[in-house]
Amino acid sequence: MKNILTKTSAGKKGDNVRSDCYFEIELTNSGGIKLDIKSKVASMYGDSIKNQLNEMCKFFGLKNANILIEDNGALPFVIAARFELAVKKLFPDLNKEFLLPINKNNLTGTTKERLRRSRLYLPGNESKFFMNAGLHKPDGIILDLEDSVAYSEKEAAQLLVRNALRSVDFYGAERMVRINQLPRGLDDLKFIVPHNVHVILIPKCESAQQVIDVENEVNRLKEENSIENEIYLMPIIESALGIIKAYEIASASKNNCALTIGLEDYTADLGTQRTLEGKESFYARSMIVNAAKAAGIQAIDTVFSDVADMEGLKQSVIEAKSLGFEGKGCIHPRQVPVVHNGFAPTSEEIEKAKKIVLAFEEAEKKGIGVVSLGSKMIDAPVVKRAQKTIQLAILNNLMNESWKLK
Amino acid sequence: MKLIKNAAGRLVPTEINGQEQIPFQGVNKFKPSGNKAKPKINSCIDFPEDGNKVVKNLKESLKKCGLKDGMTISTHHHLRNGDALTNILFDTIHSMGIKNIRWFPSASFPIHEHLIKYLEDGTIHHIEGSMNGPLGRFTTEGKMKGIGVLRSHGGRYQAVQDGEVHINIAVIAAPTSDSFGNANGVNGKSASGLIGFALADSEYADKVIVVTDNLVPFPCVPWQIQGNNVDYVVQVESLGDASKIVSGTTEVTKSPDRLLIAEYVAQFIDEAGIMKNGFSFQAGSGGTNLAFVLYLKERMKAKNVKARFVRGGSTKYLVQLLEEGLTDYILDGQTFDLEGVRSMRENPNHVNTSPFTSYNFHGKGNFASIVDVAVLGATEVDVNFNANVVSHSDGYLLHGIGGWQNCLYSKCTILAVPSFRDRIPVIIDEVTTLCGPGELIDVIITERGIAINPKRKDLIQAMKNSSLPIKSIKQIRDEVYSICGGAPAKPKVNKNKVVAVVKWVDGTVMDSVFQITK
Questions:
Q1: Measured between CA atoms, how close is B341 to chain A, in angstroms?
Q2: Among residues A15, A48, A170, A156, which one has the least CA distance to residue A102?
Q3: Is the Cβ–Cβ distance between B294 and B287 less than 8 Å?
Q4: Are residues A142 and A213 in the same domain?
Q5: Is the predicted pLDDT of residue A309 greater than 60, yes or no?
Q6: 3-class DSSP string for A37-63
Q7: CB-CB under 8 Å, B489 with A43
Q8: What's the rounded Cα separation, in Å, for the pair A232 and A367?
């Protein structure tokens, strides 16, 4: 192992730091590993921290060093990420990853069509938000490596997000990661593809080639690591050029599951302000919906950024639904139920859907090819939409799964 | 020191600070007999005919009260963290060269860190009340001369009535008073809402001093404290920092996880059938406790349900319930914000209460057991539903008991707690310090799931079809341990040195706090 530095640090410290820790490692020539553990949970988990660090030193072949940890209640997966970063700063060529066992609840897969009404963004280097995010029941959780992570924290976030994908229970939410803008984002992939990521969000997407580049790298990593689960892509369009090329992007890969838009960057690109009314982005949002539907994938709306304005969020979801969007981004867990309610079908929609589904099943039973309800003919897409409405209604507790029995 | 195992299986001393103790015998198993403590006979002819009991300063009043070494001095905590008076009081006692005082506050706050030097130099022998923040740390490290005694608000009243604590001098901070000693907390620049915690002290202490920064001509009404119980009145420039006595506004938590817990609490109360016309509930001041009131209010409005009374800690959120007609009364034990103070001053249905009315063990009945549901917090809850509120898992004393133990007597006691804080599990195998026995605790609501005490078959039945995440408490513990990296180690303590004890509401000793060894 070759080191260029003899002393380094990693992690977070300070009065406002919670659920995180800070390391200093100084390489020495003799004396073995000396640990100085300053932890607010020392009386409860001091021994556990000691064992974890000794195990990691052994794993990385660290034999003589003075190690200081200042810990503000970091969970083991956080300690592991911070310590690994400190070691890798000393030994940049080190080609070993310290992987914690994967949480068995995280071995689920996903499907291209699954519901994506809400996706909750979590800053990739803020571990304190990770553990409980899934309890708020978003359809998807996005660990973000891009805009919410400061430039100087990019490497730290890669390791933390990798460890989180293995250790943090997502409680059934779809497991998403937003990588950095290409080409940097291609380097993020090796930290996420082998760890059962479900969807990769590609930010500031402006061409089909970018989607293909990500797809190729994902496929290469899947093969290298013998990964078999499906990994889907969700390009985010955030510029005028991206909007113009929306369909090309949406149809660039069979692994695209949805197309979405980031309005902060888009309005900046237009040289205009983002308003609550949203006239300035009407064209772009309609384009996203049309491009996505034309490519047979989901259209997902941007985030609503005022976390205190729940009424505004509600209106914004109703509007998004009317434009044809099927989901919305969330930046705060309390937005999740509002978004779900907004995308829930109305009682009129549910009643109509019930009639259509029943008429369809009746016709099928009788072997009649043509289904009609009253005087209207019902074709396949109408039935499919009605089935989707029923599924949404059940998910929102608006009707019982066994509704047909009544 | 001799320790024996009490009915809860905890090791407790048989003697504390020279006083013999009765170990906890089980819930509702111990009833003292005999007569209550009785105050001395006074005669009005010994007091000024014109009713003017004002003396020139605190020192003078203490001298007139015959302050001596080893006396018991009581204060109350309505001034909360804005309290300047208690610190000035002990500055004065110290300047008079007095030693070995037993300080008997109804609660202490971080501002009382000032008193550590008097604990060190022997001015104060020990504290019987609560040992919060820095005082808790000092006590737990074994630095206090005597053994601390932690009591609930009701237990404090009981200890005075039993004669277990005989108060020599009560010093009552009064936001408004007249020269006769009639006093209240609803008026004046230091208004705290009410001063009910000083009631027992005013009735049972040998000598009573009222200290005010708002002296008004006789009569001071309402007289929450009666001048007939008061010996001396002292006027001071200021009782403390008004902004820390009551906050301008109390705000609901913004933490999404706490809000989720609060939402679960409201849903539980609704779906368990507790929320119905004429029901009652207790709400405290913590962020989660404020938030559940808002969620419950939405549900009450939607179902057109009205409460008969709400028990506070009042805040603007309870005041809104009262003013919007969603409850007939607020029965208030302490007032947390300016809206609460205003409402108590203006609205006869916002009623001030004392620990005597609220939860006195020697009363002929118990308000606390009439309440339909109490929502409380805790620092730790174990798999037997036992809970801790005074220490954290590191073994350090941190909080007082407040009315918490007394409220456990409600028809349904809910502890609303996060399942862990940072890397500190809250749901654990065994509490570090036992404050409340599991048999009185019905429901634990965490962000990870809701555990109903198996004893409450009725609640389990009522929630059978609920969409809430009902789990066993062991399931929640397992989940928390797997997140935090296993079971936490227990704090290393010196089992030969008890630094404080926790009393149960009946005066028996429930648990010991041991000295932390580093």
A1: 28
A2: A170
A3: no
A4: yes
A5: yes
A6: EEECCHHHHHHHHHHHHHHHHHHHCCC
A7: yes
A8: 38
The answer on pLDDT for A190 being more than 60 is yes
Do A118 and A145 share a structural domain?
yes
Q: Are residues A263 and A397 in the same domain?
A: no
Interface ipTM: 0.90
Q: Give φ, ψ of B263 to 5 degrees.
A: -65, -40
Antiparallel, parallel or unpaired: β A33-39 and A21-27: unpaired
- Residue A400 pLDDT: 81
- The pLDDT tens digits for B197-244 are 999 999 999 999 999 999 999 999 999 999 999 999 999 999 999 888
Here the tokens at position B232 are 């001396």
| Same domain for A183 and A232 | yes
pLDDT at A178: 98
**What is the nearest CA distance from B38 to chain A, expressed in angstroms?**
47
What is the count of structural domains for chain A? Answer: 3
Residues A324 and A370 in one domain: no
- The pTM of this model reads 0.93
Do the Cβ atoms of B421 and A131 come within 8 Å? no
**Segment holding B282, helix H or strand E:** strand B279-282
Question: How far A129 CA lies from chain B's nearest CA (Å)?
Answer: 10
From chain A, pick out residues whose CB is under 8 angstroms from the CB of B257.
132, 135, 333
| B467: chain A residues, CB-CB within 8 Å | 397
| CA angle, A165 then A168 then A169, to 5° | 110
Q: Which residues of chain B have pLDDT under 70?
A: 285
Question: What are the chain A neighbours of B484 within 8 Å (beta carbons)?
Answer: 45, 75
The chain A residue lying nearest B484, using CA atoms, is A75
Domain membership flag for residue A100: no
Q: Tell me the β-bridge partners of B498.
A: B514
How far is the first Cα of chain B from the last one, in angstroms, to the nearest whole number? 22
Contact between chains at B256 and A18 (C-beta distance less than 8 A)? no
Is B407 inside any structural domain? Answer: yes
Nearest C-alpha of chain B: how many angstroms from A1?
31
Kindly report which listed range (A150-159, A271-280, B65-74) carries the lowest average pLDDT score.
A271-280
